[in-house]
Design a protein that fits this description.
By secondary structure, this protein is α/β, with parallel strands linked by helices. It has 7 helices and 11 strands. A hairpin with a 2-residue loop joins strand 2 and strand 3.
């Protein structure tokens, strides 16, 4: 019935929460889990799609992700939370469209200070933002290992407020974070999990390239299909 996440939940004696941002991602996941795809339109409510796995649709972006996941996790019923969905490939990465990447770290790309000489993380100017080092939220080792078994690569994933639609911004995000891909929720989900002492992981399917928008390459349909395949193995 279940896969690698089911095994983690069984060891912990509690279900895992799967956090997806957009309804399209949720429909792909729900279809793969043979659950009611209409649940994709019901944001900020956790739905039990299996006894060991619940799904929440957060909405796009850090605020939506943090708010929805904080409400769900505050009851203390979950063994962990996984931020999952699609992502854009950053410069320097060799990941192909449709590749699956598990996060070795989820890294805030925007939280900091832009100076004439470069970007400084918030912690570097005396204002640490969470119980983790700098802007990097580390996944739980067991969840990282479990998700790595579903992925083509284990690499850092950036969390951005503004997606990289120019070459300049894509290069900046890659340089700031060392990430291979960018999405808009992972570090925020991990941030909440760290505050509440809950295990965290992130996994993404590459749906597009980043950089100058007219030259980007996309395979949204294919990446969502691959995402469903990944979730079916959870």
């Amino acid at each position: 019935m279940g896969g690698v996440l089911a095994e983690f939940a069984a060891r912990r004696g509690a279900p895992l929460l799967l956090a997806v941002a957009a309804p399209a991602e949720a429909r792909a996941a729900l279809g793969a889990l043979r659950a009611d795809e209409a649940l994709a339109e019901r944001a900020w409510s956790a739905h039990a799609v299996r006894p060991d796995l619940h799904l929440i649709v957060t909405g796009v972006g850090k605020v939506n992700a943090a708010g929805a996941v904080a409400i769900a996790l505050s009851g203390g019923r979950y063994a962990g939370v996984v931020s999952a969905g699609i992502a854009g490939r950053l410069p320097g990465s060799t990941l192909e469209l449709g590749a699956v990447v598990a996060a070795s770290a989820s890294v805030y790309a925007d939280e900091g200070l832009q100076t004439p000489t470069g970007f400084l993380e918030v912690a570097a100017i005396g204002f640490p933002i969470g119980p983790f080092e700098g802007n990097r939220v580390e996944p739980h080792p067991e969840l990282r290992t479990a998700l790595r078994s579903l992925a083509d690569a284990l690499l850092p994933i950036a969390t951005v407020s503004t997606c990289s639609g120019t070459d300049a911004l894509a290069s900046q995000v890659a340089q700031r974070t060392g990430a291979a891909a960018e999405a808009m929720e992972g570090a925020a989900v991990g941030h909440v999990a760290a505050r509440l002492g809950v295990a965290f992981g992130e996994i993404r399917v590459i749906s597009n390239t980043t950089g100058d928008r007219p030259r980007q390459r996309w395979d949204l349909k294919g990446s969502l299909a691959r995402f469903g395949q990944v979730i079916s193995r959870c």
